[in-house]
Amino acid sequence: MDFSRESFINGKLLLINKPINWTSFQVVNKIRWLIKSNYKIKKIKVGHAGTLDPLAQGLLIVCTGKLTKKIVEYQNKKKSYSGTFFIGATTPSFDLETEIDSTYSIKNIDKKKLIQTSKKFLGTSKQSPPLFSAIKLKGKKLYDYARKGENVKLEKREINIYKFEITNTNLPLVDFVIECSKGTYIRSIANDFGKELKSGAYLQNLVRNSIGNYNLKDALSINDFEKMIIN
Description:
Oligomer: single chain
Strand content: 25-35%
Distance between the termini: 13 Å
CATH architecture of the largest domain: 2-Layer Sandwich
Radius of gyration: 19 Å
Structural class: alpha+beta
Largest sheet: 9 strands, mixed
Helix content: 25-40%
Number of domains: 2
Shape: elongated
Order of helices and strands: HEHEEHEEEHEEEHEEHEEH
CATH topology of the largest domain: Pseudouridine synthase
């Protein structure tokens, strides 16, 4: 693998396994700092092709140098995820970032109902993004409104769900695999899934496994990347 100074300047695509509790922005900043400090480069462009929430882990495509011009091409590729829903409760952020605010009965929910409900999400639909997100509205990020308790009207976005499979059921925990289009929030799917069940749900954990033909199994940890460019 070519980790020369010129390769980063000319444009390099890096597959990074983003750890839990790191923002995608922090990953980009770390990689930019490592490149600049190791190769004595004063300025270099580094960007990622699709945000992963801090509590999610998995594949993050990072582009450097001239390749940052092609980030949109990678953002538009199909994504695949695996993770776990917690059924019978909701949180304001639709995941574990915030505390549970409501609980619901799950006595009428079984594996058959879970599978039937998942099929309703297949195809093209309109999705409301979570209020706790980095989407900007009037120059402010949505989570800034959310943390102040301000209500804002969110426009629904068109998404496409190509695959939604229930892979394991141990209520209240439900494991899943989802393949979807750009801009899909799995947290919102969790919340909407709970509503369809006439109950509640939030996202307990999430892993992004692939972006187009790029796979998590080929990704480097941040520590591995650091070792490779230093050595």
